[in-house]
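Notes, p. 3: input format for complexes.
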Amino acid sequence: MIASVLVEIKSKQTDKVFYYNIPSDLKKKIMVGIRVIVPFGNRKLEGFVLEMLNDNQIKADFDLKDIIDIVDNEPVLNEEMLKLGRYISKKTLSTLISSYQTMLPSALKAHKGFNVNKKFITYIKLVDKDYMPKNISQEKIIKLLKEKEVQKKECSAISNYSLKKLIEQKVVEEIKKEVYRINDDIEINKFRNKLTDDQINVIDSIEIDKFKPYLLHGVTGSGKTEIYMNLIEKIISKGKEAIVLVPEISLTPQLVDTFKKRFGKKIAILHSRLSAGEKYDEWRKIEKKEVLIAIGARSAIFAPFTNIGVVIIDEEHSATYKQENAPRYSAIDVAIYRARNHNCPIILGSATPSIESYTRSITGTYKLLELKNRINNFNSEVILIDMKDEIRKGNFILSDLLKENINLCLQKKEQIIILLNRRGFSTIISCKNCGHVDKCPNCDIPLIYHKTTNSMKCHYCNYIKPKLIKCPKCNVEDLNNFGMGTEKLEEYIKEMFKESKVIRMDVDSTSRKGSHEKIINDFKNHKYDILIGTQMIAKGLDFPNVTLVGVVNADSSLNIPDFRSAERTFQLLNQVSGRAGRGQLQGKVIMQGFNMDHYSIIAASKNDYKSFYNQEMVIRKKLKYPPYYNLCLISISSKEYEEVFNESNKINQYIRNNIYNQNIVLG
Ligand code: ADP
Ligand code: ZN
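Output follows (667 residues plus adenosine-5'-diphosphate):
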């Protein structure tokens, strides 16, 4: 017998399949999908067995080498996974090996020298029940063991020496038991909300034994999570499994918590902050069918279930579902592929669906389900403040109205969230006087200031012009971008509202494991009055006592050079407004900025998705952006400038000569 083995050779970005002879002692153990160790030159490599062939199927003019050994006793890739890898590799133009490696937790990738062990605890069991103890410690140990097996450390705490002797004399024996690294005891919450008519309608229109993608468009707080859990209950009662994707586990602790309380130990949680060992354990719980639900970020879509009954993707518009390094797969595409395979529904949920998904729900690719009202029927009042007027009054950071309302809230002992969405570098030049931002004449996105060349550049088409000296609109020579980060805002607010307790949540304040959860819990328990943060705080958090949300620089994300910046702004503002008035109290949202008449901000303030969608689609069409056009990025990199320059030119020429006229090449 011969096996074809796929190995990864780091220096070459190509797939390598090699043929090896299966030695007779391994014949029974080797099967498709298993990892094996093979000789390669004078090295040993790990690889995946892709095919088993008869000797006469391969005609080599040299003798094939033997497989050295197996890595696992069971295949790490089942048939569906093997097929899925080929699909991903084809769809994303990446190697098959990189697809398989991405699909597996690091403990199961084909990597030589990387070992994650199962965790064992050693127990001691009494074998010779008639043994007469020789001393007091022996007596103590045996007395303990007469009742039940106990952990070894309990016995050795009495006397390590006596324990050793007892083991030697075969009076007691050691037993190793595998334990999972994560094994919380969870208290199940039996309480069930009575579903609203809207929720029942949605659930009833989902066919559970049939492949179909659904887009669940429901405003924040409309009870989508409850719908997910209901569907899952239905599915698992039929013995099937469910995958739930969330943008990032650490940002959605409350959803995870709700799920845990409903489903207890039936859940495996996969996320990036787990150690390799923890991930390996969670993976095996799924594989052994000890759990029926997997919740996790993007890569949880590869959970090795074999009888999936539903795939749920919460916050489907989130950019995190697309992997930005090879293989550049979209978890939504993979989810659709798997749902089709398992003939089950896939639910894409969001309060602000991506423009592309919503378009698919209009054209019928997805079936649209809607929840139009919040469960508590409160809609926050949203007020927009133009900071140009405030600056004239000397308010550079907070408007009068926001300050007043913060004070009011503090007096009433209610809580406040303040969002300052300052991401990355803010090197966009804007006019301090009129708010004008200089944009690219081709692409209509803001130009980025480059200090080294003292010029302004479009990051899409490379349009370039010298740095502005005065505002082209109002002629004022005051063109600094006043960038302000969350830390500075925190300082300012602490100074301004001396009596209040303030906490900040951003990438810097949450780098330690568990710090997210701590900030969220502390805020929920009202240890703090004001929570300041970046877009991190906008997602899925449910604080009943928050009645005021302030957004500083609400328009700043419009200046991010991306054709999706209006969409992202709408999503962010819509989400953050959903944070106010979650409980029994009416909420208020105050957004301030310089371009407050932008359609994305106005639509967000009215919680009007459709109006935003319609206006955005006009622009997408005019500027030839998705979903009207598909974009393809070709990026070329090298340490040698000349080389990149020449290659780019060649590629450019080739493409221009070979595409259809209606296609557009930028750059
Ligand atoms: P979404 O996921 O759409 O933002 P959630 O599912 O989190 O909304 O629901 C918002 C709040 O309403 C939660 O506190 C939830 O417990 C509550 N809720 C959901 N469904 C019901 C219901 N049928 N009756 C009462 N409360 C509900
Ligand atoms: Zn100006």
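The longest helix spans residues 641-658.
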